From TrEMBL:
<dbReference type="InterPro" id="IPR023023">
    <property type="entry name" value="dNTPase_2"/>
</dbReference>
<protein>
    <recommendedName>
        <fullName>Deoxyguanosinetriphosphate triphosphohydrolase-like protein</fullName>
    </recommendedName>
</protein>
<dbReference type="Pfam" id="PF01966">
    <property type="entry name" value="HD"/>
</dbReference>
<keyword id="KW-0378">Hydrolase</keyword>
<dbReference type="InterPro" id="IPR006674">
    <property type="entry name" value="HD_domain"/>
</dbReference>
<dbReference type="InterPro" id="IPR003607">
    <property type="entry name" value="HD/PDEase_dom"/>
</dbReference>
<dbReference type="InterPro" id="IPR026875">
    <property type="entry name" value="PHydrolase_assoc_dom"/>
</dbReference>
<dbReference type="GO" id="GO:0008832">
    <property type="term" value="F:dGTPase activity"/>
</dbReference>
<comment type="similarity">
    <text>Belongs to the dGTPase family. Type 2 subfamily.</text>
</comment>
<feature type="region of interest" description="Disordered">
    <location>
        <begin position="1"/>
        <end position="47"/>
    </location>
</feature>
<feature type="domain" description="HD">
    <location>
        <begin position="105"/>
        <end position="259"/>
    </location>
</feature>
<dbReference type="InterPro" id="IPR006261">
    <property type="entry name" value="dGTPase"/>
</dbReference>
<dbReference type="GO" id="GO:0006203">
    <property type="term" value="P:dGTP catabolic process"/>
</dbReference>
<dbReference type="Pfam" id="PF13286">
    <property type="entry name" value="HD_assoc"/>
</dbReference>
<feature type="compositionally biased region" description="Low complexity">
    <location>
        <begin position="1"/>
        <end position="14"/>
    </location>
</feature>
<dbReference type="InterPro" id="IPR050135">
    <property type="entry name" value="dGTPase-like"/>
</dbReference>
Length: 470
């Protein structure tokens, strides 16, 4: 009798007793069983807390004979997307070609995914679902990072503005190529309901954005008007503006990752030393005030100062970095320890409130202690004070915004002449000027830093652009 899971020797053997040349041997395994599954492949691992509703796709797909789960397939679709690859040539804090060390949007996204995956798993979230959200979270960023985002928002008024997170949803559900409806319209990557919800960092429109403590409406939003159908589909049954558990994990992983890594990049590239904040009152005041103004509006300066002091008192705090291997190891240990510190605090606080059951979808919230929020904000404030707001960088930022504005203006005035084929088709199918303007914004947002510069030089300035290869 054959062992369990082992094909019978007679099943499809097609052999002869004489073992004639070319005949299949009786012991040759059948590679795929009745379900199309190799005998050595397990069934998809289904994390508790997710239903068939969560795994639904906007466009229904035939069942696949695979040992991968729906969320594993979501992750693979994002990982293989063109939008993710392009992040390798898009600015995180400094341009990708400035040095060989600093993060790009792609390496940042990979690090966010690693942090989010482990934190999410510890809380009971499906790790592949959180991974998908983390890999997706910056897909919508245009050339030149947040500076490019401001530039495109300024020139996109007639079609509803520009926001990187809304552009991410547009990419996932429309612009990336994977599945199409019967009428030829795009379903984008056709991710599951839970995956789209997890990638939605700001689940509201621009008009519905919540008010900030100063009474002004937040500029952050997660969906354009013409992407509302898919937004309403994956948000069906979700109350108000509530973020899913997986989206909250992604959001925190993003904050944790860039708070420590932007500081690491700045220190290693000699933009500043952490001892400056301790030794110079003016630098310290600038860091504390930048933290409040950028990340904790209305926050108490004394609490921010206390958070900075807590970080400085840590044994792993690297006050000075001289570029040696020993110093680089110490800096890497500092970033690792800080990530662990912040994640552990959130894990313990969340479990204290919601217990030890799997925490998924809309059944719980990530709890971050106020002290931890302040420490994360201080790390972000250090990088902002010494890098993003550095006076010598302001002319560069102005040139970047001018470049994108001029490129958008040129493309809007030349119809579909210079658009990539898929965007040219979108332009021709657009119903009105606002829709055509959105196509131009989609095209420019898709460019990397280097291609935006190349397009501007050749199309706007009429110069010959030469790529140098060695």
């Amino acid at each position: 009798m054959a062992e369990a899971g082992t094909p019978s020797s007679s099943a499809g053997a097609g052999t002869t007793s004489g073992g004639a040349p070319g005949a299949r041997r009786a012991s040759q395994p059948v590679l795929f069983g009745p379900e199309g599954r190799p005998p050595y492949a397990g069934r998809p691992a289904l994390t508790p807390g997710y239903s068939a509703w969560d795994r639904q796709r906007w466009l229904a797909e035939p069942p696949k004979n695979s040992y991968r789960s729906d969320f594993e397939r979501d992750r693979a679709r994002v990982l293989h997307s063109a939008a993710l690859r392009r992040l390798g040539a898009k600015t995180q804090v400094v341009a990708p070609d400035v040095d060989d060390f600093s993060r790009t949007r792609l390496t940042h996204s990979l690090e966010v995914a690693q942090v989010g995956r482990e934190l999410g798993r510890s809380l009971g979230c499906d790790p592949d679902l959180v991974d998908t959200a983390c890999l997706s979270h910056d897909l919508g960023h245009p050339p030149f990072g947040h500076n490019g985002e401001k530039a495109l928002d300024a020139v996109a008024a007639e079609c509803g503005g520009f926001e990187g997170n809304a552009q991410t949803l547009r990419l996932l559900a429309r612009l990336e190529q994977k599945k199409t409806f019967d009428d030829g319209s795009s379903a984008g990557l056709n991710l599951t309901r839970a995956a789209l919800d997890a990638a939605c960092k700001y689940p509201w429109t621009r008009e519905d954005a919540p008010l900030k403590p100063n009474g002004k409406r937040s500029k952050k939003f997660g969906v354009y008007a013409d992407d509302l159908p898919v937004f309403r589909w994956f948000r069906e049954g979700v109350p108000g503006m509530r973020k899913s558990m997986e989206a909250q994990v992604m959001d925190l992983a993003d904050d944790i990752s860039y708070s420590v890594h932007d500081v690491e990049d700045g220190v290693v590239n000699t933009a500043f030393q952490l001892r400056w904040v301790t030794e110079h009152a003016e630098h310290r005041r600038r860091v504390v005030e930048t933290t409040r103004d950028w990340y904790l509006p209305g926050g108490d300066l004394a609490e921010i100062e206390a958070a900075l002091a807590r970080l400085e008192s840590l044994d792993v705090w690297v006050a000075e970095m001289d570029g040696t291997r020993r110093a680089l190891a110490a800096m890497k240990d500092m970033t690792s320890q800080l990530i662990g510190r912040f994640c552990a605090a959130a894990f313990e606080a969340t479990r204290e409130v919601f217990g030890n059951e799997p925490l998924t979808r809309h059944g719980a919230d990530v709890v971050v202690p106020a002290e931890t929020e302040h420490e994360i904000a201080v790390m972000k404030g250090i990088a902002a004070a010494f890098v993003m707001t550095a006076e010598q960088r302001q002319p560069l930022y102005a040139r970047q915004r001018e470049l994108l504005a001029e490129l958008v203006d040129l493309l809007q005035s030349t119809g579909d002449r210079y658009l990539d084929p898929m965007f040219a088709a979108d332009w021709r199918e657009a119903d009105d000027d606002a829709a055509r303007a959105r196509v131009v914004i989609d095209q420019v947002a898709s460019l990397t830093d280097s291609t935006a510069i190349e397009w501007h030089r050749t199309l706007v300035r009429g110069e010959t652009f030469h790529r140098e290869w060695v």
